[in-house]
Amino acid sequence: xxxxxxxxxxxxxFYPHEPLNDRMRNSRLSLSLAVAFVSGLLWSSMPTSTLAxxxxxxxxxxxxxQSVEPVVDIPPPPSEQADVSEINFGAIxxxxxxxxxxxxxxxxxxxxxxxxxxxxxxxxDNRFVTNAHVVSNNRLIYIKKxxxxxxxxxxxxxxxxDCDLALLEIENSTEFKTAFSGxxxxxxxxIPKLNTTVIAVGYPIGGERISVTRGVVSRIDFxxxxxxxxxxxxxxxxxxxxxxxxxxxxxxxxxxxxxxxxQGYSGAVAQNTGYMIPVPVVERFLKDxxxxxxxxxxxxxxxxxxxxxPAQRIALxxxxxxxxxxxxxADPAGPAGSILKTGDVLLxxxxxxxxxxxxxxxxGERVNxxxxxxxxxxxxxxxxxxxxxxxxxxxxxELERFLPYLIQANTYxxxxxxxxxxxxxxxxxxxxxxxxxxxxxxxxxYFYSYYSSEGLYRERPExxxxxxxxxxSANTYLQPYVHKxxxxxxxxxxxxxxxxxxxxxxxxxxxxxxxxHVIRCLGEGRPLVMERATAREAHDRxxxxxxxxxxxxxxxxxxxxxxxxxxxxxxDASDKDDTKEKKQEKSAKSAPEAIKSAxxx
Amino acid sequence: xxxxxxxxxxxxxxxxxxxxxxxxxLLVPAGLRAQEKPSPEKSLVRVNATLQSYNFLRPWEKSAxxxxxxxxxxxxxxxxxxxxELIVNSTYIELEHPSTGEKTPARIVGHDYEAxxxxxxxxxxxxxxxxxxxxxxxxxxxxxxxxxxxxxxxxNGDGVxxxxxxxxxxxxxxxxxSAVFLVYQSIGSLQARANSFTLPVIKDGKLGGxxxxxxxxxxxxxxxAGPIIQAFLDDLAEGEYQGFPNLGIGFEQTLDDQxxxxxxxxxxxxxxxxxxxxxxxxxxxxxxxxxxxxxAIGGHAIDSRGxxxxxxxxxxxxxxxxxxxxxxxxxxxIAIIRNGEPQDIDVTLERKEPNDYLIDAYMFDRGPRYxxxxxxxxxxxxxxxxxxxxxxWDTRAPFKLVHANAHPEQYEDEGREKLVFLSQVxxxxxxxxxxxxxxxxxxxxxxQAINNLKDLSKAFTMPDEKGIHKIEFTDFPRVIYIEDRTSxxxxxxxxxxxxxxxxxxx
Lengths: 601, 506
Hints:
heterodimer; A: alpha+beta; six-stranded antiparallel barrel; 14 helices; 29 strands; 29% strand; flat; disordered C terminus; B: alpha+beta; Thrombin, subunit H; eight-stranded antiparallel β-sheet; six-stranded antiparallel β-barrel; 15% helix
């Protein structure tokens, strides 16, 4: 999987959140705006309230990082499949979804109800492919056949938010058998050639019945997938009039599926530009889920720098052969963290020679070296030939998922985590939170931007923010500290949300201040203090007054499951008297110099 | 009619004004005045300055020169007092006689940009320009409810006197955002004349203050206070100028009852909660700590908002006790409560110059330091550099640098004096492959820690035996290499290209 901006000069094997440089940073900024803009117009008829919200939250003037294609003289496309009557319409279904949008601002509320329509298609025995965004945050899913009035209740078998695909089934298999008897699944084809005709079939806005639109394949490229907001994969750009509701629908050529329609721009930005998920991504998803579980894309989580400068080659004692990219950093939470070092040069990947601009050749095509990782699954090995200390070495790395980058990903199908205590609302930092609370605090922005790239997750797997103070006489002076990062509560270091709950309800206190709850925010000299008796009394009063039904929802963050990363954090006893030495040791561990020592996994 | 042309004038910090307004019905009987008595005609001069600011994004350049016109208050000894911002980054200053129009070039005798004050004198000591003029004395007695005069001069040299009423005294910023001092807030309608900077505020024929800003809509003016002028002049008269001391603490109010009980100051009056103590500041050296509650400074009780009761001005922020009432070297007693126990701490007041901080909060009269090596441009981070990114610089400037400015502690702890960073890369044969790098903080060059630009200049004299420089950063790309020979050749070309200097280290 490729994440990040595939810039011409730097290979980015994972999403580099720190500003590599400003031109890139700016382009990333505008890119993310564009992506979010698109996400308001995903190709399912989103509930209008959601649409309005998303559009309001983004600047309408945002210009996407979409370059203008030069006008070139292209011969008219060969008209393949002129006859639409051959299309297997029976296998293409309408997916109607009732949704529940979680409310990150008021996390105990059940959230807004809405509904939407997308398209899906039969790929096997009671298996329908659609987009993840069509069925995200669903309460109820119905599948409807063309020419059949009956809605069939369906459920999600697998969902892949990182590539915007989902697999559905009709709940009652007998119903499926009856309704789809004689219906053949669609056949999956291949990557269509540029400038060939394709047909998008689906249930877009503008009517109830199935719609067919024709377009031409205009570009094949790595693009951001706006559903998650952080993932990049191969996409195919089509000039067909793909519209909301087309989402999840097949794009056909010669009656074979060549893609799944999934995103585009609004008319104001670029016209007649739709994107489809191409066959390699769809097939990877189907293969990954063949065992019933989805294991996600894997990631080398390694940043590299092109080796174009003659001085680099001399310093690294590299032959002058235009081969190799230099490792700048391998994230310790990624599979290469304990293996690759700063200054290593990657010479080849799975036998493909890596050019000094980070490209490799596969089947005659020059592609980014990430293409190799893109095609792999969790647990697969990748073979690297590297140059270290003036000599060649062969390495094998077992690929796995990389989790820290997900702090910047849109999250779905999840109830917001929070702890409410005496009107103080604590929530872990993620993209949904940033969007809901509109946080501009510098410290929070720092944690959000550098959580992954600076390894901030090692000290704080969850960054806990005081997101609101529900005003009451018990906390009226604490309002100015909203949006601060919580460092300790009652002497307990806050590393995950559970710590907040434990610190406030367990046997923790600051020495000499046993009658107080003492909350210390990062970089704030003034602690937030509440007398325990006052807080206890206020808690129930505030719950009743502000219509709060329950005062916490806590899930263990997935990142804690990364082996070997957090061995040092579950020792609560050591928290209370955190000596100076210990603190230094900890900060040294998160420092970049310590990567080597910390990577004994 | 006058009001409309006023709206943009006085409102902000810069009072550029070029418009000439017609005067109605104001007659100043200059001839009736006794010669010795100060008057606008006799005690003010025009000051014409040419300013040229430095370009922090292209540090070898200066921007286009701009004129700035103001008034100066004549002091004894052929000296002229002006506001600092009138002459900031000036390349040329001249004094102009208000009625004869005679001009003479002037030099800066002393200045303090934080206090927004400067003293000028004719370069030619034999200049007769000021011979006929009557010096002003400084008055430090202006108080709320006083009526004072704002003096201006017409184009023809006639004086204009406008009366304004002083409403209150407060502590507010002058010119530099981070520096606050005593101001008088006064109310009364003012009319613009040709010279907008440095309008003297006069009480009983003495200089009681100088106008800082005027809000035409509210008709409220902020006046730089006489006591600050007096302190500045006294300091200057003593020889080497020391400037105003700073304590170096951050604090918060203690209105929160629960916080008061937590800090064990319940049952007592007032107090402010110290939230941080700047490293090597006066407070730090005296042993003040975060978490202390300051109850009194120099015998003045501090209330829970941070004010004390001044005999003349009433409630006033405690900072006036440090910056205004005291001098560098003064000892001041601070009564604190630490862990519930009252204590007295003797603080010797010192001053940290902007250059003493990791990141300079302001920089005038000299350009930013920089070093160019083969097209890599290195700079020391300053607040003016960040501000060069425009109005919303805190979101537009490189975030890592913005964050460093807000949280310099980590870098200070590493022993850095200045934060050296690669600001941009010019495309040259030496920088092939690095063109898109910028805004990355340097850690080492050729194995040497880089704590300021001089370190960097020195480190670049030590390439390895292959003639390669190794440049390490705190972030991506971690390490790059350049060739010494190619880079020096590129430097030569850049000189030909028009960048006159490859480094500016002082």
